Amino acid sequence: MVFCALGMLIAVRQSDRAKAVGIGLATWVFMVLVYDSLLLWLMFSFSDRPIEPVIVPLAALNPIDLSRILIMLKIDLAALLGYTGAVYQQFFGRLGGMLVSFARLVVVDAAPAGAVRAFRKGPLNAST
After folding, report:
1. pLDDT the model gives residue 64
2. What pLDDT is recorded for position 40?
3. Scanning 19, 55, 57, 97, which has its CA 20 to 30 A from the CA of 128?
4. How many domains does the chain fold into?
């Protein structure tokens, strides 16, 4: 739902289809590849320090990571993640962590409301 919402918002805001596809793909690549790579680099670079208070909120900022973590916790695969899974289980496995996660995903999924409003107005650079 998150990427459907983002895709709809991008499509409505851009009048050029090729540019909209490019922006959508760049957004996906950033969230899936770049953000995860930076997060892993951060975890490995500072593995000798207590970095858990920083990693959990950073993982929750990316809706893809947050959804992936919640699915793994729901189907009891957190043990496969090792120490990271234990950290995520400690925060997201509790009721408070689940509520924070749910609220975060609802906020991100609220983007279609902005897309619907923008759709009613039309493209930004269309002459009226």
Report:
1. 83
2. 82
3. 19
4. 1
